Amino acid sequence: MRDVFLDEPGSTPATSSPGHRAILRQALLRQLLGFCLFGAAYYVAYRYGMSFAQAGASPFWFPDSVLLCGLLLTRPGQWWLFIGVTLPIRVFSEVANGIPLWFLLATFAIDSVRGVLTATALRRFLMNPIRIDTAARSPGSRPPTPRSRSSISSCCGPSRCT
Question: Other C-beta atoms within 10 Å of 159: how many?
Fold first, then answer.
């Protein structure tokens, strides 16, 4: 058990000073505001991403970018909140009308796992995953050579069906 010392009889304990509570409230308010901004940004990205024609798969899915940013900006212990808020946006959004529920749940699961794995890998291998310039300074990373860049683009680039 932790000892709490009082400066004077009847005064507040040193561990729960009014300034400490104000900082806690401010941090909690900042986290709540960030969570609400994430939800709004994810909703806008989902609406925008679903506005395109469904004729072909897109190499970039805007909501995945927003999810990755949200995961990178928060502690891993809070990731379940960010993953959890994306499900109702996907299922109950008006742009999801006419799409089978099994498909919405499957894409939710795939995108969530991809976001968590990507955020985990970036946190693991980069000193500061939020800054792009840290990739070159991270241990074990080398800049891509022209040969590796061309092989990457040929494997991952858009393919043409003729």
Answer: 7
pLDDT digits (tens, 9 = 90+) for 39-75: 999 999 998 888 776 666 666 788 999 999 999 999 9
Higher pLDDT among residues 29 and 159, named by residue = 29
Q: Hey, what are 5's tokens?
A: 């010392």
Q: What is the SS3 assignment for 140?
A: coil
Angle among Cα 76, 62, 51 to the nearest 5 degrees reads: 140
Tracing tokens 């469904």 back to the chain, one arrives at 54
Which parts of 51-100 fold into alpha helices (H)? 62-72, 79-92
Q: Residue 82 in contact with residue 67, Cβ under 8 Å?
A: yes
Is the pLDDT reported for residue 83 higher than 90?
yes
Please give the torsion angle defined by the CA atoms of residues 130, 51, 106 and 60, in that order, rounded to the nearest 10 degrees: -40
Instruction: Give the residue carrying structure tokens 């999810």.
Output: 67
Please give the pLDDT value at position 142: 52
CB 39, CB 69: distance < 8 Å? no
